[in-house]
Every structure is written in C-alpha cells, then in structure tokens.
Specification:
Rossmann fold, Arc Repressor Mutant, subunit A, 8-stranded mixed β-sheet, 8 strands
Length: about 350
C-alpha cells in the first residue's frame, strides 16, 4: 500500500428504508473491518483529531476500515426516530449492505453491545469480532443516581457535561487532546441527541444474546476503565463461547487515549493482520525532524537554528507537513507527532 493511500478517507452515504441517511467513511484497502463507534461521532472531525486519526490509520493498514456516523451525529442528518437497539442495527445493516463479502466487526464502547447483537443475528456475515470497552448490561455501568445526574448534566449544561465526560472517558490523555475531545463531543450532536444516545447506552442489554455469537471473539478492555467497569468485559467474555479476554493497563475508555499502540497490536494480531513496526505517514526524513521539533514546542526560528536552515525554510516545511497530513494548525501537527513518536 502506498503512503498516500491512508492519508485521506473516502466519504459516502447510504439510505435506510425509511429514508434516513447514514454517512460512512472508508480508508485503506483489503478485506473490510466494520467499526461501530461509541456514543458520539463525527467522521470529519474525528479524522482531524490527531490521536484518533492515528488509531484509524493504524487499524486500516492492510484492510479497509469502514466507520459511520449514527443518525443524528456528525455528518448523518438528525432524525425524529427515538434511539433504540433496533434502530442501531438498521443503520449497521445499511452500511454492511455496501459490502459484498463477510467482514471483521469491531465495536467500541456503546458500539460493542450493538456489534454483539449483530453478530448473534447475522453469524454468516462476521469473520471475527472485537469488543473494546464494552458491556453486556448497561444498567450495571453505574448506580441509577449517578446515571440520572450525568444525563441531566448533558441535557441542561452540554458544555460542562462534555468536560465531565471527557474526564471520565480519557483521564490518561494529554491536556491538548482532552480539550479537543470536549470540543469535539459538543460538535458531534445536539445536547438532546447526546442525552438520548447516552440513555440508550445505559439501557442496552445483550446478556441474553451472548450465547448466540459464533464468530471468534476478542474482548479487550483497560483495567481501570472508569466508564465501563472491567467486570463487564469479563461478563462478555464469559458469555461468548471461546472468547479471548485481554485486559490492558490504563484508565481511558476511549481507545485512542492512553496506550493506543498496544491496543492496536492486540487487535491486529487477533484479526490476522501484520503488526507493523512503524507507520507510513508520507513525510520526508526532514519533515519528520521538523514535526518532532514542532511537537516539542519549538518556534520556526528555533527549528531553523537547530537544523541549520533559514527561518523561511522552516516555515515552509511546517506548511507542507500541515498540507500533507490534512491538518489546519500547528497544534494538530504537534499532537499527531507526539502520539506517534515511538513509531516514526
């Protein structure tokens, strides 16, 4: 695969029987890996969030990663239909119908119980199943009083609610990533949609469906996950015949926060994909040097002094890096390189 192949995602839409449109994105080439994302999503903004994009680029090497925005989120239009597991499965079915072969299926967070329900109902479509940060019974995630407090906060004070949830979802993320993540959540949907989908997360119960899953399954979880207790991962693995349980260190619920690289290695090994020692990014050796210095907080003048070039050349390198990676700011370059430094 060429370096450029992973640089841009391809966007498209699919329509449900009732006219609901769902936007989906593909990146990479090869056998499909359908990725059912968590609570709130935005295909374009998630691609611009450096740490999240690095996760998708890593997963897409050697396969075709397919993600979608659930109705009411991101690039998918708002709808009047209430959130439900049946509606979630309709959306997944519409995306799956664009594929002409069995696929690997990965569900993260709220997407995990949705993926379980799909795999139980459509065993012939799923090659392998990965469940990350998921649960069998949403009712067991937290006490009722805590759930009601969080739902009320999201509904009445979406700005504060997104900040609180970011602290829960990504305690191991660096401050710039956490700030971007809070803004990102608010841009994904309205407060009403956010509340409805969070409420659905608490309502989902697939415990009775686990025994019907036939696909080889890996249940991956972080030991200190504050949003979904590790006991839920244990319940998923115990209920699915032959499932592998992999508990990783860390507290972050969001897959691209914390030790993303080890998570990617576990998933790729299970799916039978090569575990790359380094990621292709399309940058020249000099551009990687510049990106490294940007990530360390150097100004263009400081970069020029360190590399023995003039300041205008340093500025040009930064601009070409920004354009190559599709970023809008120097901060995004810094966050992206910082997240990938040990792989470059």
């Amino acid at each position: 695969m060429s370096d450029n192949h992973l640089v841009q995602q391809r966007l498209d839409q699919v329509a449900l029987a009732d006219g609901t449109t769902v936007s989906y994105a593909s990146v990479g080439a090869g056998r499909p890996l359908v990725y059912v994302m968590g609570w709130l999503t935005h295909l374009r903004l998630s691609w611009e969030l450096a740490a999240e994009r690095a996760l998708y680029e890593a997963l897409a090497q050697g396969c075709r990663l397919v993600r979608y925005d659930r109705a009411g989120c991101g690039l998918s239009a708002a709808v009047d239909r209430p959130a439900s597991l049946a509606f979630e499965l309709e959306q997944l079915a519409a995306v799956a119908a664009t594929l002409d072969e069995p696929f690997d299926l990965m569900g993260t967070s709220m997407g995990a119980p949705v993926a379980v329900a799909w795999a139980a109902a459509h065993p012939d479509t799923v090659r392998r199943l990965v469940l990350y940060g998921g649960w069998a019974r949403g009712d067991d995630l937290s006490p009722p009083a805590v759930r009601e407090h969080v739902l009320g906060l999201v509904e009445s004070h979406w700005g504060l609610g997104s900040d609180v949830l970011t602290d829960i979802f990504a305690p191991d993320a660096d401050p710039p990533t956490r700030a971007e993540l809070a803004r990102y959540q608010r841009a994904c949907s309205s407060a009403a949609t956010a509340r409805a989908l969070l409420a659905l997360s608490y309502e989902l119960d697939v415990s009775d469906l686990l025994g019907a899953v036939r696909a080889p399954t890996a249940v991956v979880h972080r030991a200190g996950d504050r949003a979904a207790p590790v006991a839920q991962a244990e319940a998923l693995a115990a209920g699915i015949d032959g499932a592998q349980l992999v508990v990783l260190p860390g507290r972050s619920h969001i897959p691209y926060a914390g030790d993303r690289d080890e998570l990617v290695r576990v998933i790729r090994r299970f799916l039978g994909l090569p575990v790359a020692r380094r990621r292709a990014d399309g940058l020249t050796a000099r551009q990687r040097e510049v990106a490294d210095l940007v990530s360390r907080g150097c100004t263009n003048r400081e970069i020029a002094a360190r590399l023995g070039i003039d300041e205008r050349s340093a500025e040009g390198h930064v601009e070409r890096i920004r354009l190559r990676l599709g970023f809008r700011s120097r901060t995004q370059i810094a966050a992206w390189y910082g997240a990938r430094r040990d792989l470059l």
